[in-house]
Amino acid sequence: MDLKVVGKPVARKDAIEKVTGQTKFGADIDLPGQLYGAVCRSTYPHATIKNVNTEMALKLPGVRAVITGKDYTKLYGQFIEDQPVIAFDKVRYQGEPVALVAAEDLLTAQEAARLIEIEYEPLPVVNSIDEALTNETLLHEDWSKYNIPGACHPVQNTNIGDTFTLRKGDIEQGFKESDLVVENKFSCSMLQHTTIETHTATAYVNQITGEITVYTPAQSPFTIRPVLAKAFNVPLEKIRIICTAIGGGFGSKYEVRAEPLAIALALFTNGRPVKLQFSREEEFMASVARAPAQIHLKTGVKKDGTLVAQQVKIYWDTGAYVTTGPRVNYNAGFAACGPYKIPHAWVDGYCLVTNKSLGTAYRGFGVPEVACAHEFQMDCIAKELGLDPLELRLKNVLEEGDISVTGEVMQSIAVKECLEEAAKNIGWYDKPLNWTTQDGKLAGKGIACFCKLTGTPSTTSTVLKLNENGSLTIQYSGREMGQGVTTVIPQMAAEALGISLDKIHMAPVDTAYSPYDKTTTSSRSTFHGGNAVLMAAEQIKEQLLDLAAKYFQVSPSQMEYVDGVIRCKGEPTKAIHIEDIEASGILKEQPPVIGNGTYSTLNLYYKPDPLTRQSKRPTVMWMFGAQAAITEVDPATGCIKLKTIGAAHDVGYAINPVGCLQQIEGPIIMGLGHALLEEMIYENGILRNGNMVDYKVPTFQDSDVEMKITLVEKQHPEGPFGAKGIGEPGICPVAAAIVNSVNAACEANLNSIPIKPEHVLFRKED
Amino acid sequence: MKTLTIQVTVNGEAFCKTVGVNMTLLEFLREELHLTGTKLGCNEGECGACTVLVDGKPVNSCLMLAVEADGAEIFTVEGLAKDGTLHPLQEAFIEAGAVQCGFCTPGMLMSAKALLDKYPKPTAQQIRKELEGNICRCTGYDRIVKAIILASEMNKEG
Amino acid sequence: MLPQFELYRPTNLLEACRLKAQGAVVVAGGTDVYVAMHGGKLRPQALVDIKGIADMQEATYDQNSGLTIGALTTHRTIEEWELVKQKYYALFEGCSQVGSVQIRQRGTIGGNICNGAPSADSVGPLLVFGAECLVVGEKGQRKVPLAGFFTGPKKTILADDELLYKILVPPPAPNSASAYIKYTRRRAMDLALLGVSIYLALDKSRIEELRIAFATAAPTPMRAYQTEAKLRGKDYRSISLADIGKMAAAEANPRSSWRASREFRLRLLEQLVQQAFTTALQRAEGGDL
Ligand SMILES: Cc1cc2nc3c(=O)[nH]c(=O)nc-3n(C[C@H](O)[C@H](O)[C@H](O)COP(=O)(O)OP(=O)(O)OC[C@H]3O[C@@H](n4cnc5c(N)ncnc54)[C@H](O)[C@@H]3O)c2cc1C
Ligand code: FES
Ligand code: FES
Questions:
Q1: Which of A108, A189, A477, A671 is the most exposed place for a label (fewest CB within 10 A)?
Q2: Given a cut of 60, is residue A755 above it in pLDDT?
Q3: How far is the CA of C2 from the centre of ligand 2 (A)?
Q4: Cα–Cα separations (whole angstroms), residue A638 to C68, C94, C192, C268, C272
């Protein structure tokens, strides 16, 4: 196929708005008559609420509404309805909303929130996975009281909010057949997405009709709409979500956060809109996070390095409410054994509730964590067997036709190529595992690979509207959050229809008129949105061919659509270019040219067995990639410097190659933060470092890393132009590769992230 | 005093406003002048999203009172493009792919502008140093460095 | 929005002292004050913005008396001041590593000192250069060595009516050099987990003068007087670097916190002292700086 627009690096379509400061993000929305919201938050991580006194707050001039948990006792949740909008009987994390205020200006709202007096009776705090596992203090005394609308499996009388299992073969038999059994543990810290835009929502309610409108930088409007509808007890169509631009998502804007609070207030303000914007402190303390994880692995191998059996136990510290924990548990469970052939595999995953902020969706949905663990384990095995880490991996990786741990015959799989390319990108083959640099630093190399599925089944719809002049408007609800979806979708439409890219526009996303799209997560938008757009484009073509046939007075079967030219076969004069469509007059007084496309993966999905997870096809698209790292460690101070990352990711087909690179470069630096810098530090349920100096995301100065990236293009048979997703894969192997390179450099087995200088100096192993 | 009347020039336009002394320059720009291009990311000087130029120098507008800008010339992202033409920095950011979510971009552009005013031909190292107060969570920074170098190679704006 | 307050902007020093005595919180660059106010930790009734006091902005150098730095001098001014780079390199290293350009553009050296943080980046370098503080109150002025300025974490000797007016830094000896090493987890926008400043004057290989100061190694910025005294007059070739590190670290009293353990800080301190010493030595021998 001779492709003109896809496969070419193009500038982002949203760039001009962004560089001129015109993009409207959440907080840039101001509505006439708007009030400002403030949240009175719990100072205790775990306590019974004895009394909430709002009297003083209500007296403050300018205060228009003060509401408490008593005003709204309905629980909500996408997987399990365990979370109150405003805490009413007890608080389960520091920062949980206890009362809300709306006032004429922000300062008044904040002052009023400070004046609310709350009497607490402190309860014992569950601060960690280990503490949660004792079940001495239960955060949720009775799971059975909660409604469970999604896939969530809590265990009564425990702090376990969800369980996951995977069973293949006979694990004990596998260990018996092995020459060597290696056991290890790996821990990952609690992380914040730290998007530069905090959570924000502006809501208003029509008191008569009950209609609720909310402006929000939501990642997944169609996922949160039913959650909000249920939480506020209105039919779906009475919730309208108007999406603003998103100032960074990475999963943080998947969950409802500011929306229910703004709406709850707006119910009490006589129709006046309420704007609520989280401060950075609130964002850290009480928005969402990546759950800390503890992963135990036991692996049996043959002397030659062939993997025989692997047992993985994963514990997620999912915070006070279950939220998206089960989905993280599920996705990570499928990926926990890595992209390897392992005849006997068991995985058990547990989401544990603790008195901390909420662990939820975070770029990679649990895969970066399990990749750290299984890739750490691979290096330990290589060391024990005296094998090269890359060789060990290449020996065991899944290839075309191999059977995965979930029983699927793998197709369109390029892990091997990715490993080899990533290795080449750092010059793996010319380097020892470790060496000392001229200035006395300990240097090492490490490599890691991963597999990640995309959520299946799911559905995406699009509507393409041809305008009178041949330009095109695309209605599609995949959300732009920097990953470039609003560029690749038009690229694919441009390719299909021969319309130039600058004549294609993305409509804003608003649940009032935008077609359904399940969610912008799981790296699914290019794949699903692309397929839907291509189907819609076919309808546009057909309609145009019909109209042109009428105009040329020939039968539609004589017409064809080639590169944007609607023409009569064999009659060169009877042809109209799509861009001349207005002049041609064929659209005049005709029905609108509108195509719609729906792509659903329901039909190709085989629901995995709930215990074993065996399935012919658990996902429509597996994503694979590998990264290799070189780091240098200063033995005197423990300082670690990431020098080089060589990456190779199987993108299927790169619709926008620059876009793909951007989705790998950004995550490399984000992953550097995860591996070496970032952690939310809790002491007895109190967050110690909830600001951007103490929670250390990489700065310009930390990010001077040589990056060499290869896009591997193993076309996916069902992907649009063969494309797969690349929003999350970039982050999945980064920390794992860095950990392995640091361990190689210092000949250590550091098994937790972030690796700190302190760990290096004292060789602290958990 | 609790309020004060101030005169400031923002992107070349003069404004005279009476504001509370407790209003930050950032709030003044966003809420009084409705110039929402400048972003609030932390209110604590830690992210750089609120960076504007005050008399040519980059400052965190979240950590400055509006009244302190009395008599000053303020420059924000909205002032970069002129007469329908993008500033070379804006063009370079687009061309080099230095923009993803775009939330850090306005502040980034302001710091970059100050940098180029100081070092017309900056090295990568100088860029990383002078922009160390601007956090970007999306791009990994490399393309921003490249964009600024690219802008420095373009024709200087008039 | 900042909580409401009354704002005073005197142009007269004594007026500022009087307002401070009445309870107004002094604000210079505001990079500490406004952060504390945004976070709700500080809720002053009144602020006195001292930036209108002209002679507090001045910074001059004289070869006999050295630097006279008005308290309102910003870190950026010092960073960009060629003379500081030539003669007071450690001070350049300290000020140029405060926060970010934006913070340095506003943040003042006086604010850095008066804020009283043990991590303050300008303080260690100033300590090793033997800086003195010129303090002004309603009843007059006094000179206090910077080393005696801090009485506890975030506590200084300033009386209710007193302002830090100027900082006086004697000229360094011609045969001297200095170094400041700031140890942070992150390479920018971070507070010193530890800081080591060294001033070293040599007479050939004899240590004519040595001053060592630490940041974040005790409740206040501190000097390592005992180590200095032991080494003064010695031939630097006769002492092992490791011993200097150990000796100096023994004077420190860092604490364990979620940021780092005491154990780690002490271990690190030994290393950083060696590095700072070596750097200063190289600079001294190189003849420049
Ligand atoms: C994001 C960020 C990063 C930072 N990074 C660093 C860093 O890396 N290193 C570092 O050392 N600091 C850092 N700081 C802290 C701060 O910027 C410095 O301490 C700065 O020097 C403070 O100066 P200022 O003029 O802004 O002080 P202000 O905030 O105006 O005042 C600070 C304190 O000193 C008092 N004060 C100020 N001037 C006088 C005076 N002349 N007489 C009496 N009292 C006075 C004030 O009342 C107040 O208590 C950082 C701050 C932020 C927000
Ligand atoms: S908003 Fe001012 S620095 Fe973050
Ligand atoms: S582009 Fe998203 S924060 Fe920089």
A1: A189
A2: yes
A3: 14
A4: 39, 22, 15, 9, 12
Residue B155: predicted pLDDT: 64
Question: What whole-number distance in Å separates Cα of residue B54 and Cα of residue B75?
Answer: 7
Phi (first) and psi of residue B85, to 5 degrees: -115, 135
Indicate the SS3 state at residue C18. helix
Taking the CA of residue A195 as reference, the ligand 3 atom at the shortest distance is: 3
Q: What is the ipTM of this complex?
A: 0.98
B9 and B70 fall within a common domain: yes
pLDDT in tens, C177-222: 999 999 999 999 999 999 999 999 999 999 999 999 999 999 999 9
| A121: amino acid identity, one letter | E
Backbone phi and psi for residue A626, each to the nearest 5 degrees, phi listed first? -150, 150
Of A498, A405, A392, A488, residue with least CA distance to A449:
A392
Ligand 3 pocket at CB < 6 A:
A 196, 248, 482; B 99-105, 136-139
Count of Cβ atoms closer than 10 Å to residue C286 Cβ: 9
- The pLDDT of B87-109, averaged and rounded, is 98
Looking at B47, B79, B111, the residue that finishes a domain is B79
Residue A736 near residue A375 (C-beta atoms within 8 A): yes
Q: How far is the CA of A14 from the centre of ligand 3 (A)?
A: 13
- A696 closest CB neighbour out of C40, C185, C267: C185
Instruction: Tell me which chain A residues have a C-beta less than 8 angstroms from the C-beta of B76.
Output: 21
Q: With b meaning 16 or more CB within 10 Å and e meaning fewer, what string describes A600-634?
A: bbeeebeebeeebbbbebbbbbbbbbbbbbbbbbb
B158 found inside a domain: no
CB of B90 less than 8 A from some CB of C: no
Q: Ligand 1: which atom is nearest the Cα of residue C108?
A: 25
**CB contact (8 A) between residue A699 and residue C268:** no
Asked if the structure places residue B13 within a domain, the reply is: yes
The pLDDT-based confidence of A376 (bands split at 50, 70, 90) is very high
Output the CATH code of domain A26-123+196-248+253-286: 3.90.1170.50
pLDDT at residue C1 in the model: 85
